[in-house]
């Protein structure tokens, strides 16, 4: 089978599996922006995010043979990106200091103002969260992981994941209120 000049994603993956460097470069260029966007949500330092992106692509190309053709590539790749970004985060973060927050009663009274924000607004406000709150918020609200999965990923109790999410939402809510007051 001769390689088309602009292969579709299935063909591109097929050629990457056979070790074709040009196809790997095309896949890299096609998903670079997507990959960087995900890594920047977890790693605010651009250089760390770029390193995580590149390491993720290396992991993709090393393990692309294990990718099943019937699976969704973007979801498979996103999981690699998130895990790689978390690995970078773990290098710089001390989760051993995370305490179990079982005595804290999660509050569920949030204004619908947070629900009405755009993703860009929320991401901008998230830069004001502490690292653990930001990680938990990203993993739960944006990437759809469960508290049990988050607990395992971050080596914290499941109840702490819930509490960090609650506190992140509370912080975002107060930031939103402050931001709204100053905008008037």
TrEMBL record:
InterPro entries recorded: RNA_pol_sigma-70-like (IPR039425), RNA_pol_sigma-70_dom (IPR014284), RNA_pol_sigma70_r2 (IPR007627), RNA_pol_sigma70_r4_t2 (IPR013249), RNA_pol_sigma_r2 (IPR013325), RNA_pol_sigma_r3/r4-like (IPR013324), WH-like_DNA-bd_sf (IPR036388)
Organism listed in the record: Pedobacter frigiditerrae
GO molecular function, one term: DNA binding
Keyword hit for Transcription regulation: yes
Domain spans labelled RNA polymerase sigma factor 70 region 4 type: 122-172
GO biological processes: DNA-templated transcription initiation
Tree of life domain: Bacteria
Record keywords, A-Z: Sigma factor, Transcription, Transcription regulation
Family label: Belongs to the sigma-70 factor family. ECF subfamily.
Name of protein: Sigma-70 family RNA polymerase sigma factor
């Amino acid at each position: 089978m001769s390689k088309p000049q602009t292969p579709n994603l299935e063909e591109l993956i097929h050629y990457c599996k056979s070790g074709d460097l040009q196809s790997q470069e095309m896949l890299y260029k096609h998903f670079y922006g997507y990959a960087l966007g995900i890594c920047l949500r977890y790693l605010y330092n651009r250089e760390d995010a770029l390193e995580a992106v590149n390491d993720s692509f290396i992991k993709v190309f090393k393990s692309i043979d294990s990718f099943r053709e019937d699976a969704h590539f973007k979801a498979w790749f996103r999981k690699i990106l998130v895990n790689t970004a978390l690995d970078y985060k773990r290098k710089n973060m001390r989760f051993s200091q995370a305490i179990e927050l079982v005595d804290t009663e999660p509050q569920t009274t949030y204004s619908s103002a947070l629900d009405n924000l755009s993703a860009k607004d929320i991401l901008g406000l998230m830069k004001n969260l502490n690292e653990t709150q930001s990680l938990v918020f990203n993993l739960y609200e944006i990437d759809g992981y469960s508290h049990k999965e988050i607990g395992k990923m971050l080596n914290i109790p499941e109840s702490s994941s819930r509490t960090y999410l609650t506190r992140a939402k509370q912080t975002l809510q107060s930031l939103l209120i402050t931001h709204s007051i100053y905008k008037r």
